Amino acid sequence: MDAALERILQVGIRRAGLEDIARRAGINRITIHRRFAGKDNLVEAVLERETQRMLTEVSAIATTATTVEDRIEETMLHVLLQTRIHRLVTQLLRVAPEEALGFYTVQGERLVAIGIDYIVGMLTHAQSAGLVDRYDPRPVAELVARLAHSLMLTPGVGGVDFTDPDEARAFVRSTIVPLMKHGIAAPSSAGTAGRSAPASEGIAQL
């Protein structure tokens, strides 16, 4: 996978042949076929590994923040940044721009699914610890994961310029932090409409 990644970054996906990748890895093509169904399967594995690496970085960043609000803010800013500047995005756009849009559109479903599962796990853990309200985390996770994927392709389109660190931080602080703390508000009885279920008394801070 290391050899595949480096070759993709050099010439793009279409021109990164299995023979060349095998030679760079010091193995033969048959060995690759024993482990992967084909080139597409190998590329998917490379992409998934890079995504998992980014999420590992996110988990490490979370331990440096002191409050749940800060944890959400810093981790989400890192995710939004990395989905724009990761070398698999920027380099592929440089060496094979005609491939990049199609590739990340086709592979987007898998990327979003990985992001959703990670965020669901993070929110479920936070709920168990009493750090955020109790709500169904999957719709929130899907919104955030889809936002990150969208920003990978169109970072400067719309009312917020996510290439501007101050604008990106303000957006995350004012929208994503309360969304992940309280969930999506649902209609309820008079006097409580538009509010989520109440959190445990006093959200714990780390």
Automatic annotation (TrEMBL):
Q: What InterPro entries has UniProt attached to this entry?
A: Homeodomain-like_sf (IPR009057), HTH-type_TetR-like_transc_reg (IPR050109), HTH_TetR (IPR001647)
Q: Which residues form the HTH tetR-type domain?
A: 1-54
Location of the DNA-binding region in this protein: 17-36
One short Pfam name that applies is TetR_N
> What keywords does the record list, in alphabetical order?
DNA-binding
Instruction: Enumerate the GO terms in the molecular function aspect.
Output: DNA-binding transcription factor activity; transcription cis-regulatory region binding
List the residue ranges of the region (Disordered): 186-206
Q: What is this protein called?
A: TetR family transcriptional regulator
Q: Which PROSITE patterns match?
A: HTH_TETR_2
